[in-house]
Design a protein that fits this description.
Layout (H helix, E strand, L loop, with lengths): L1 H39 L13 E2 L6 E7 L4 H19 L4 E7 L5 H16 L4 H10 L11 H11 L5 H9 L4 H14 L6 E4 L2 E3 L5 H13 L2
Parallel strand pairs: 2-3
Antiparallel strand pairs: 1-3, 2-4, 4-5
Helix pairs in contact: 3-4, 3-6, 3-7, 4-5, 5-6
The chain binds calcium ion.
């Protein structure tokens, strides 16, 4: 009697286990179908690289666009932690060209910092990257309006001596690059993505821009298709 019950229990257990397995495989099948479908229809954003500063080889097989705000702390983090690895592994090796589009999401002085970037770029395209480094390195609190014309002009005098700082100051006063800087922000808004930095690898949005592993995986995937 006791043995019969045991064997019935056993049967129940086996049937139950098989059912669970079948169900799990079914769910897995549906999920993997969904993700692979997702993979093939990955959204490609149309990115305007023209006239934006870039690092690396112009005809590199992979283009990365950073939409960033010089006042954004996470953009600073991207600059401090991701850029050095990216530069060493992909930009300096000619596999990636890295572009920057200025956005103004943090405060009114985000625009000032952006305009200075445009003014520096106009004078000397490669010097832009010295400004990029200096402004992130000396970034202040995001809730304080630290990116004033005086602060930024002094920053240039100290860190980007190949650029005429007085000319940059005049450009700020005359708002020479205001329209152009605002137009960059419009390009960012057109993507519909709110957060900065926004990192795109050949137009594909990287959800976690602070994950070097994710960026690397996206680059390698693009390199394979070339
Ligand atoms: Ca620009």
């Amino acid at each position: 009697m006791a043995n019969q019950k045991k064997s019935r229990d056993m049967q129940g257990f086996v049937v139950g286990t098989i059912l669970v397995l079948v169900l799990a495989l079914g769910i897995y099948g549906v999920v993997s179908q969904f993700t692979s479908q997702n993979d093939t229809t990955e959204k490609i954003y149309s990115i305007d690289y023209k006239g934006q500063p870039f690092l690396g080889k112009e005809n590199a097989p992979v283009k990365i666009m950073e939409f960033g705000d010089f006042k954004c702390p996470v953009c600073k983090q991207f600059h401090d932690t991701i850029m050095p690895q990216l530069k060493k592994d992909y930009i300096d090796t000619g596999k990636v060209s890295f572009y920057f589009t200025n956005t103004q999401v943090i405060g009114p002085d985000s625009l000032t910092a952006g305009e200075v970037g445009e003014a520096v770029f106009k004078q000397n395209p490669q010097a832009f990257w010295k400004y990029y480094d200096a402004v992130y390195k000396n970034q202040g609190n995001e809730n304080v309006q630290w990116a004033t014309p005086t602060f930024l002009v002094n920053l240039i005098k100290k860190n980007v001596p190949e650029v005429d700082a007085n000319k940059v100051e005049q450009d700020l006063q005359k708002k020479t690059y205001e329209k152009q800087t605002l137009a960059d922000n419009d390009k960012f808004n057109a993507t519909g993505i709110g957060g900065v930095p926004t990192i795109m690898v050949n137009g594909k949005y990287i959800e976690n821009g602070l994950s070097y592993a994710d960026i690397k995986a996206a680059i390698e995937k693009e390199l394979k298709t070339k």
